[in-house]
């Protein structure tokens, strides 16, 4: 019997079993009534056969993960409680440049404080550093937004007491929007603006508002961390360090 015919027969048999089962009332009873936590710690003996099996893969992986791609001029600490940090500014400024390589008309960038997962230590920046910073399978996304939707996004940023933004500035008071500008200019409701972000945010992740009805959307096949690695490598090639600055782009007014 050919492979295709065998698969068809198996599918028919499986479908018949499902149909038969669906016509009956089923009752399930727990096979095990007792349960306990099993700690995985130093008391568990190492399985040498498993260790020997994975060791060649680990060595190869570590070689790539520990590869130095740049140098951080100063530590950039991850802190979700601050409206603006060196790390968040570095991340969205990098995102802005990456976005403009895809579409030169990108005017601003945005991420979320919860989307940035780790700090960058002073000194060597490795591939592992970037994986820890952005461990998710997120892809670069360019959204063209109406001015009104940009303002909805700005109100969300204010409501959450600030989020990482690039080539833009915001003033917030009591978690309400006071002012929002892109490239130093007020938002024109009759214009459209191109935003560089990533697909998780573009699809409403972290409850971001204002991005659900873009005029146009493009998702790059490149993951964010891959783009960040290339970005850091380009800085190194140009003789530059991984660095950032606090420029007051996110202001909390008293």
From TrEMBL:
Q: Which residues form the signal peptide?
A: 1-21
Q: Which GO terms describe its molecular function?
A: hydrolase activity
The question of whether Signal is a record keyword is answered with: yes
Any Gene Ontology biological process: nucleotide catabolic process
Question: Which stretches make up the 5'-Nucleotidase C-terminal domain?
Answer: 68-208
Keyword Cell division part of the UniProt annotation: no
For this protein, the record's InterPro entries field holds: 5'-Nucleotdase_C, 5'-Nucleotdase_C_sf, 5_nucleotidase/apyrase
Alphabetized, the UniProt keywords read: Signal
Q: Record's Pfam families?
A: 5_nucleotid_C (PF02872)
In which domain of life is the source organism classified?
A: Bacteria
Instruction: Indicate what this protein is called per its UniProt record.
Output: 5'-Nucleotidase C-terminal domain-containing protein
